Hints:
Layout: E1 2-10, E2 13-26, E3 29-40, H1 41-47, H2 49-60, E4 68-70, H3 74-84, H4 86-93, H5 104-117, H6 125-131, H7 134-138, H8 147-157, H9 161-176, E5 182-191, E6 203-206, E7 212-222, E8 228-234, H10 240-254, E9 260-262, H11 270-278, E10 282-286, H12 293-300, E11 307-309, E12 327-337, E13 344-354, H13 355-381, H14 391-401, E14 410-417, E15 420-427, H15 429-436, E16 441-446, H16 454-462, H17 465-477, H18 488-516, E17 522-526, E18 530-532, H19 536-541, E19 547-551, E20 554-557, H20 562-570
Parallel strand pairs: 5-9, 9-10
Antiparallel strand pairs: 1-2, 2-3, 4-19, 5-7, 6-7, 7-8, 10-16, 11-12, 12-13, 13-16, 14-15, 17-18, 19-20
Helix pairs in contact: 3-5, 4-5, 4-9, 5-18, 8-18, 9-18, 13-14
Amino acid sequence: MYVKRATVRRGRSSYVYLRLVEAYREDGKVRHRVIANLGREDMLKASGQLDQLAASFARLDPPPWGTRREVGSLLLVRHYLQRLELVKIVDKAIPQHGRAQLTHGEVAAALIANRLSAPAPLYDVAGWASSAAVHELLDVPAALLGDDRLGRALEAFAPVAASVRGAAMLAAIEAFGADAARLHLDLTTLTVSGTYPGSDLVGKGWNSSRKVQRQVRVLAASNSTGVPLYVRPQPGSAAELTCLGQAMDELAALLPPGLLVVADSALGHWKNLREVDRAGLRFIVPLRESTGFFDRFLADVGHDGLRPIHYVSRREQHLPAHRRTRYRGTLRDWDVTDPKTEAVHRFRVAYIWSSEEARSVAEARERALTKAEADLARVQRGLGGHHYKTPQQVQARVNRIIGPNVHALLTVNVGAHEDRPTLTWQRDQTAIDAAAQHDGIYALATNLPGRLTASTMLRLYKDQHLVELAHRANKSVLNVRPIFLHNDDRITALVSIVGLALLIYGLIETDLRQALGPDQHLPGLLPEGRAARPTGRNILAAFQGLGATYTPNGLRLDRLTSTQRTILDHLNIALPWPEQGQD
């Protein structure tokens, strides 16, 4: 059976009709008969019916025996897509008529699977899907994942990205019991190349390398177990405070009252904290130096007022006690009056001293002083030469050498003697000793009510690295970069869909860790069969090379390794097909 194109002429016009033709034998001869007239080709294309027909055949077309499909981590991805009901969430937000074609939810599911199974720039997704078990596991034919279809899906997804993001977060909370009482917020940047005239999303801004580049900001919110429940793109030129404010407003509207937000020092001004407090959110935020907490610490507490805090980070648990970072701290009340409303906001501040931080600051100060003195010595040796003929030239060079970090720690004198400039300097030991009083001290502000200690606040704040790990996975494991899309809607949609993939990535990691128990290692996660603590990255990697083959008896999965079997058992994932040799 095949589709035949028949040309019909009507006057000066000609039309192409599509007919479904069946070939059969009669009296030993091959004959053909028309089963159905499908209609005019141009009208079928314009109405979308031709695509629907192609989709119907693509869904029913079985590959020949011996055809192999790469399965890999798609076994895990399908399970979590189904439990989150992500396809339904997207299709509810973007209704679509006609079932034969791919829905936008199915396209989003395929893109999420692609990002978790074979992360790469958004290129030739159909080629990947044709070799992977995307049709078999997700019911998404590879032939329907062309670039045009992906582009239409991304543009349709962008306007509803916020609602899908919120619904997916709530689904994770309901289906997996993900804890959303405390969320750690942080921003990162995705550098993009090319020109984006008139773009509201791609803009120039400061990135983590202290360079101004074209970028898109990405905000993530991870819970206490490290699951990034909420990931949203932000304009590249937007202020960090603006991005955090918008995210907190959206999270406050989605989640029950009492949400605790842990963020970095971008929020650490009293004005910002008053606004957060007024909005009814709880927070733990490090204060900025401009709040004056150093002076208040020295006046009200002092180093003698700090008490030991028993806290050991995971990376230091294997170290002997004398090599671990030591902490001391105390908790104090701090009332802040709103100058506009004269309302008093009652906060508490935990003053924390860290031996690692103190050592790092002291070493950095010594390096800066040593470098400044070496540069001054180089100028001194060149006095009277071509570049330093006058005191004004010397002073200009000194001003460039003495940066704000050592300006108050060095006393430098520039003068002249017998028409020749002079230069002397010495360290101001009193100023250095005063600066050393601040070494290792930082302050964590909160509006949490009830019984609280500095130790509790430190432990909660130290989980901030969980959201940083989410950013790292976004960039390195899921390879959200590079971005080749030159359309704001498509970039917004792609970053949002990768954020949903990151949600599934975190759920897989957390579920397996909880199933194994705290601090448990799983054999075979590392090369040579070595045991390791499960991470999203090594869990997905454990399924690399797993495939399925079409046989006369149906699809047969490769024999599982003991590690793969253990992971599937702990996550309660059933096999879709028998393994080889189990007939």
